[in-house]
């Protein structure tokens, strides 16, 4: 997404014979295809192993990325966007499932912040690289943005090939490849690594268990899961227009194309640092909603600032407002970890992880249409929409937190009124109900 945003500022659309509205169409199609392929890709990941599927997807994505250098029109642009969506669809769900093999629930939010933070760092580097790469326009008859895609693709190939020989299947399977014949752990360390995960969440003992029809049914009927999906869908819509158009907004404020791309880098660095600090607070103190609201309120205030600044605002003041808005810390990793800890059994959780990533990308369909060319360069109508969406997200976070709290209190009251015989009988009869059982307590 960020490479495309940088490429847009280097006149990608004009070079291919269409406008930025055509780019919006490409983004829309990308998110539809991404969502469609998320669940089947995650099923493949579970079948072949995430440690193999992740490198396969990385190298496939790399091929499609450097293939941008071969396109010459709108049709070619759409084809590569579809291919990018297919190769990206299963990557994040596979990584989430893979990380759950290594980290406890109260460690996951910080790790996910680093995970998505790495993307932010890559985006910052992309902006810095763009500053120099766009000056390569004309070399071998290629536009500067094509060189950017070529470099991104080749770099990903290198990392993807290394990943084949570096990623272990699990804590028990670290021997071989670039990890060495003895692996990373002793037998005692392996036992500790496995026990600390299963004691934190006993459902992870069934990590290799296939998804069943009962898992699908429970996932479809779980209103808590749907609430998390709605939070993800609505709350992350505003990230797409600001991310996609940030270089163009900075350029239109009065900066050169190369300087505009250079000035996007601080937003990614600030967002990365802030996201990690907020996620660490969530892991340490719990109460995910409180920490998630930091990022939501931050973005809300940013869009309000972009909206109220007058048309004659200086370019540095406008840049400062755009920088503040784009730098809001991400709550996505915390919310995914929160949802994951409250969804059992493991098959249902696997579906939920794929669904939440799908929700985080299908919202790119409406998100790609918020900033329209006839609303440029200040996108005031689009900013109003983003303000409303952030306000709704705040309400939804508070609603879900209150709902979990009330449910826990009701379950404790009901459970404590049962005698030991009734409790045992209940557990025997409802063993497979997962987080719908009376003895299950939601993490707040």
SSE blueprint and pairings:
Blueprint: H1 2-9, H2 12-16, H3 20-48, H4 50-66, H5 74-88, H6 91-99, H7 105-133, H8 144-166, H9 187-200, H10 213-221, H11 223-236, H12 239-252, H13 257-285, H14 288-308, H15 315-326, H16 332-341, H17 346-362, H18 364-367, H19 380-416, H20 420-429
Radius of gyration: 23 Å
**Remind me, CATH topology?**
Growth Hormone, Chain: A
Q: How many distinct beta strands?
A: 0
Q: Helical amount among residues, as a percent range?
A: over 70%
Query: What class, by secondary structure content?
Result: mainly alpha
Beta-strand level of the residues, as a percent range? under 5%
Q: Report on the biggest sheet.
A: none
CATH superfamily: MFS general substrate transporter like domains
Number of helical runs? Answer: 20
CATH class: Mainly Alpha
Shape: globular
Give the uncertain stretches in residue-range form.
none
* Overall structural domain count: 1
Organism: Thamnidium elegans
Main location: membrane
InterPro entries: MFS (IPR011701), MFS_dom (IPR020846), MFS_trans_sf (IPR036259)
Protein name: Major facilitator superfamily (MFS) profile domain-containing protein
Description:
By secondary structure, the chain is mainly α. It has a single domain, classed as Growth Hormone, Chain: A, CATH 1.20.1250. Helix content is 73%, strand content 0%. The chain has 20 helices and no strands. The chain is globular. Keywords: Membrane, Transmembrane, Transmembrane helix, Transport. Residues 1-408 form the Major facilitator superfamily (MFS) profile domain. One of its GO terms (molecular function) is transmembrane transporter activity.
